[in-house]
Design brief:
By secondary structure, this protein is an alpha/beta fold. Helix 9 links the parallel strand 9 and strand 10. The longest helix has 18 residues. The structure holds flavin mononucleotide.
């Protein structure tokens, strides 16, 4: 593992940002983070401008229903004072699960999801709770062994997760069947008591992989209309169930930082320069289709995790200053907020900043660069982060996430995950068993 530099004072942070050539928004007035945010065309309001990102725990029962550790995780995060809780990736089909511990929603296990929504509502004292719906595509391992469902072969993605060239590409007929399944899953999420369903399109899971299926023949490849068809059809199928108390949301990654033609939202010259023309078009169409809430992200954790979640310690040394990664996430959110102001936009990139996250979040939110700041790894490590920011005006430096990547290392072993550093009682023994030499 590689170790990054970490700043201890605001002056060190500012100097590091300057050295990285980036300008981070910073504000010492954190009161803006107390602002509630009503979602357009609904009666649903984020209680404040801090949220919990979707964070998988790989701890479901074999049928995909939430397990005891799922309830514990969501309860801890929901009771921490955040204004909205976004529940993790939940497969809508059995073959689209990343592993046997991934949540899967179905009519015959809906009671577990009802219980999960109830726990989250009660623990958060009524914060909105969103359920993320997904098909894991090339990362599917329904029986814990790889059974990729691929829209295309991708030599760049093969660098980190090779797929045999003889493996079949998924048929148009299979893809045709998915919008109805996402619509039905959205209805189940509504029946279970969630306040919204997220049609996930990011990180190179199936819907986002299709966005760059430039060479795929047929209805789902080639033109912009074809590549975005499945995602937009799924949004429309889910939006049938939309009303004042149930929103359609999306975890959306507009730019993959994977060179064209293997990644979406990138310059056609094959460089790592974003090209916002197609992402902006798609973002407007998402709004037309009924999406009113987005939790944004970039990159793919399987290919360029430093883009998606800047870290101090991880599998490789990032090819850029870590604060450049944080800044890319914050600036991309600002771009999206400007493109479609009517979508309530949650930004990301804050956990890396440890105790300085509140100042940067307040800087971004007060400048209108996002409506709210979302926290992922921080919520695992420090579930009370929002309460401490809102009530004490600061995070406790001894409780913050260290971006050490141990949570993801556990995931990669297809094991239940959490924070082995700050939630040691439960997750340290598991971590030691998985990594006895560390
Ligand atoms: C252990 C782990 C599980 C994650 N699970 C999900 C998930 O289920 N859905 C999703 O959209 N993103 C998932 N992510 C990405 C996070 O939501 C978030 O985008 C990322 O960690 C960056 O935010 P942070 O810097 O606050 O951690 C996961 C990340 C980690 C580390």
């Amino acid at each position: 593992m590689n170790s990054g530099f970490h700043f201890k004072t605001k002056a060190e942070l500012t100097a590091a940002a300057e050295a990285a050539g980036v300008d981070l928004p910073l504000s010492d007035d954190l009161s803006v983070l107390k602002t509630p945010r009503r979602i357009e065309d609904s009666d649903i309001t984020l209680k404040n401008s801090l949220t919990v990102h979707p964070m998988e725990g790989f701890d479901s029962g074999p049928d995909g229903a939430p397990g005891e550790l799922t309830f514990r995780r969501i309860k801890r995060m929901a009771s921490g004072g955040a204004g909205l809780i976004w529940v993790e990736a939940t497969a809508v089909t059995e073959d689209g699960r990343t592993n046997r511990g991934q949540l899967r929603i179905a009519r015959d296990n809906l009671d577990g999801f009802k219980q999960l929504a109830e726990i989250a509502h009660e623990a958060s004292d009524g914060a909105p709770v969103i359920l993320q719906l997904t098909h894991s595509g090339r990362f599917s391992k329904p029986d814990n062994t790889p059974k990729p469902v691929i829209a295309m072969h991708n030599p760049v993605m093969n660098e980190t997760m090779p797929i045999d060239p003889s493996w079949p590409v998924v048929t148009d007929e299979y893809l045709d069947s998915l919008p109805e399944k996402f619509g039905a899953a959205a209805k189940m999420a509504k029946d279970a008591g969630f306040d919204g369903a997220d049609i996930k399109c990011c990180h190179k899971y199936l819907f986002s992989e299709l966005l760059s299926a430039y060479d795929r023949p047929g209805r789902y490849g080639g033109s912009f209309e074809n590549r975005t068809r499945l995602f937009l059809d799924a949004i429309r199928a889910a939006a049938v169930h939309r009303d004042r108390h149930f929103v359609i949301a999306s975890r959306f990654g507009p730019v993959e930082m994977i060179p064209h033609p293997w990644g979406f939202g990138m310059a056609r010259d094959g460089s790592l320069t974003p090209d916002w023309e197609e992402p902006d078009r798609l973002y407007r169409l998402m709004h037309d289709g009924g999406v009113r809430l987005v939790d944004m992200t970039l990159g793919s954790p399987y290919y360029n995790p430093h883009v998606n979640r800047p870290y101090d310690n991880g599998g490789y040394e990032p090819p850029e200053a870590r604060l450049a990664g944080v800044s890319r996430l914050i600036d991309a959110a600002a771009h999206m907020k400007k493109t479609v102001p009517g979508i309530t936009l949650i930004g990301t990139g804050y956990s890396y900043l440890r105790a300085f996250a509140p100042q940067v979040a307040a800087g971004a939110v007060s400048a209108g660069m996002a409506d709210a700041a979302g926290f992922g790894r921080m919520a695992f490590a420090y579930p009370d982060f929002a309460r401490d920011i809102l009530e004490n005006g600061a995070l406790d430096a001894s409780k913050v996430c260290l971006t050490c990547s141990k949570c993801t290392a556990m995931m990669r072993k297809i094991h239940a995950t959490g924070c082995p550093i700050r939630d040691r009682e439960v997750y340290l023994p598991m971590y030691k068993e998985l990594f006895p030499k560390e």
